[in-house]
Design goal:
Layout: E1 11-15, H1 18-21, H2 34-39, H3 57-70, E2 75-79, H4 82-85, H5 95-110, E3 114-120, H6 126-129, H7 138-154, E4 160-165, H8 167-175, H9 187-210, E5 217-223, E6 227-229, H10 234-257, H11 262-272, H12 281-286, E7 292-296, E8 301-304, E9 312-313, H13 329-342, E10 347-352, E11 362-363, E12 366-367, H14 370-388, E13 392-399, E14 418-420, E15 427-429, H15 431-442
Bound molecules: beta-D-fucopyranose (FCB).
Beta-D-fucopyranose binds next to loops.
């Protein structure tokens, strides 16, 4: 195959999130988050793991940025832990929390790495959960206040902002399926949470426009999966519509068009009498357009009509990652083309893509993660093809810079291109990282 050259100024990046890497959860005035509470609840996380220490990044951030620099990384997407800034979620500010992120940003810029900040990657201050969490619409206002504060203190240097990471996961894994914090199993609650998340997103975008940040861009990161039917039967096509509606359109439509998809809205109203939408909410949301869509892509879904349920997942033959997610790069291409066609040709960043595989072991100072390298390569190729076909893809953040706390799976799943030895905290770039360095250097595959 001939060389695949990427557009000039394409942002080759890596991504992480605060609770997954920082540790130091009780240091320098940080307040408790719902993930501290959840991970310390027996039975919630595999092996009883917690983010108490994680990768110790809070103390080792300089060394981590140095390693990114050595790998030639151009962009770093990280998240701010809200409870480091407002230990109680609102009110009293913790200066030391701001100082930490401010130093991190300086370190990045001095290393020629562009920061991209996610405001909410799941570590809600526990004090706000005690008020009802995202089910309480006041929290949307507290979020906008916190966002405004961050624009104020970092906006002179940070130009890329992401309001939420994966609101579907926040709402449904956290409140309907109970596998993420805060751990509820209440579908109506989850639907209400999803609306308040979208509302809070719009409020944070509005605050951004008012902040006076120059040359800045703001968007939202969604977990999107293209959905395919198991057969061409009409009932399987209905299953596709339903899953696509709940996971993809339910978030894309309000963000881009300011309206929920009619079919899913009718369904939620009928089944759960939710969400509670106040007069003016949709008009307000419609008035807060984003500058880009952040796409987290890992795999596709294939579904059919089940015997008892409307949607049943099928598991096609193929290669699977350690998460049991199918490796399907064509899905990334299809998804990008669909976003381009159905959602007004938005500017897109892939804000996460990557894979966990089994045999990440250090042998002779090397981690031979050929499978991860192959995974990334095939997805980069799909992205390149989409760009050739007109998609406005401007950057790609690999998940993840280093192995870290993978939520309910604890430390059992390694997504990093850099290996972390959790006993010594030593970082070792895997083969995929060294390969990525060459891709970045040549801006081509
Ligand atoms: C995404 C999350 C990210 C990481 C990857 C594997 O859903 O945004 O924090 O856990 O999955």
């Amino acid at each position: 195959m001939s060389k695949l050259i990427f557009p000039e100024n394409f942002i080759w990046g890596v991504a992480t999130a605060s609770y997954q890497i920082e540790g130091s959860v009780a240091d320098d005035g940080r307040g408790e988050s719902i993930w501290d509470r959840f991970s310390h609840t027996p039975g919630k996380i595999l092996n009883g793991d917690t983010g108490d220490v994680a990768c110790d990044h809070y103390r080792r951030y300089k060394q981590d940025v140095q390693l990114m620099k050595e790998l030639g990384i151009k962009g770093y997407r990280f998240s701010v832990a809200w409870p480091r800034i407002y230990p109680q979620g609102r009110g009293q500010i913790n200066r030391k929390g701001i100082d930490f992120y401010s130093s991190l940003v300086d370190e990045l810029l001095n290393s020629g790495i562009e920061p991209a900040v996610t405001l909410y990657h799941w570590d809600l201050p526990q004090a706000l959960q005690d008020l009802g969490g995202w089910a309480n619409r006041d929290v949307a206002d507290y979020f906008a206040e916190y966002a405004f504060k961050m624009y104020d203190v970092l906006g002179d240097r940070v130009k890329k902002w992401i309001t939420h990471n994966e609101p579907w996961v926040v709402a449904f894994l956290g409140n309907a399926f109970g596998v993420h914090a805060p751990g509820y199993k209440d579908y109506a609650l989850a639907v209400n949470v999803s609306h308040n998340l979208i509302l809070s997103h719009a409020k944070a975008v509005q605050a951004f426009r008012q902040s006076g940040i120059k040359d800045g861009q703001i968007g939202i990161t969604l977990n999107l999966s293209p959905v395919y039917p198991a057969s061409d039967k009409a009932e399987d096509m209905e299953a596709v519509q339903l899953l696509d509606g709940c996971q993809n359109r339910w978030f894309l439509d309000p963000v881009v068009y300011g309206a929920y998809p009619e079919d899913i809205l009718a369904l939620y109203r009928e089944k759960f009498n939710a969400p509670v939408i106040k007069d003016g909410d949709m008009e307000f949301i419609a008035q807060q357009p984003v500058d880009f869509i952040g796409v987290n892509y890992y795999s596709r879904a294939v579904v059919k009509k089940g015997r008892e349920t409307n949607i049943e997942h099928v598991r096609p033959e193929g290669v699977y990652t350690e998460m049991d997610w199918e490796v399907y790069p064509e899905g990334l291409y299809d998804l990008l083309i669909r976003l381009h066609k159905d959602y007004n040709a938005p500017v897109i960043y892939i804000t996460e893509n990557g894979a966990a595989f089994k045999d990440d072991k250090i042998v002779d100072d090397m981690v031979d993660d050929q499978e991860r390298l192959d995974y990334l390569k095939s997805h980069f190729e799909a992205a390149h093809k989409a760009i050739q076909d007109g998609v406005k893809l401007k950057g790609y953040y690999v998940w993840s810079f280093m192995d870290n706390f993978e939520w309910s799976y604890g430390y059992s799943k390694r997504f990093g291109i850099v290996y972390v030895d959790y006993d010594t905290m030593r970082r070792t770039p895997k083969k995929s990282a060294l390969w990525y360095r060459d891709v970045i250097e040549n801006n081509s595959l």
